[in-house]
Amino acid sequence: ISEAARFALPLVLFVLTPLPGSDRASPPRLAGGIWLLRIAAAMTFVGHGLNSLYLNPKFIDFLLAAAAHISWDLSQSTAETVLRAIGVVDLAAAALMMLKRWRIIAFYMALWALVAATARLVHSGPESHFELLIRSGNYCVPLIVGLFWHLSRRK
To answer: Which of 30, 72, 87, 142 has its CA at a distance of 20 to 30 angstroms from the CA of residue 22?
Structure first.
């Protein structure tokens, strides 16, 4: 479930591929593609939110490493509290992505997913740069949704 956004991108590209004789996807296909992206982003955040609530040890390590990197003395218990709060916010963002058409939620999810992916670089060093690329779907999917909503609102 945490990888839903990464796996949804190729499917959405297929759905949005114009039919022969057309230069763009039809409005129903476009609407369907955006819904697939919304569902994928929400599922990804549900998966990560639940991992945070269950205090995934890897997530705690990421928090402790990030805190040490910025010279913030973070105890294990405080990291667990922060992780639980992150889990609640992730679940709320997932729900809002499905229930509302708020660009701010989509952009928040994109930014937070980028921060979370970047935490792996802080934790494991620059040689883990591929982790940021592997997780690009996690931040690109909500970014695409937010940009679509933004651009369709301007028309």
So the answer is: 142
Helical H runs in the chain? 4-16, 27-53, 57-69, 76-99, 103-124, 129-134, 136-154
Element (H, E) at 55: none
| Look-up of token digits 């639980």 | 84
Q: What is the pTM of this model?
A: 0.90
What are the tens digits of pLDDT across the range 34-51? 999 999 999 999 999 999
- Rounded to whole angstroms, how far apart are CA atoms 87 and 102? 20
Contact call for residues 108 and 143 (beta carbons, < 8 A): no
**DSSP letter (8 states) at residue 17:** S
Contacts of 20 (CB under 8 A, 6+ apart): none
Q: Is the dihedral of CA 125, 46, 139, 36 positive or negative?
A: positive
Calpha distance 132→119 (Å, rounded): 9
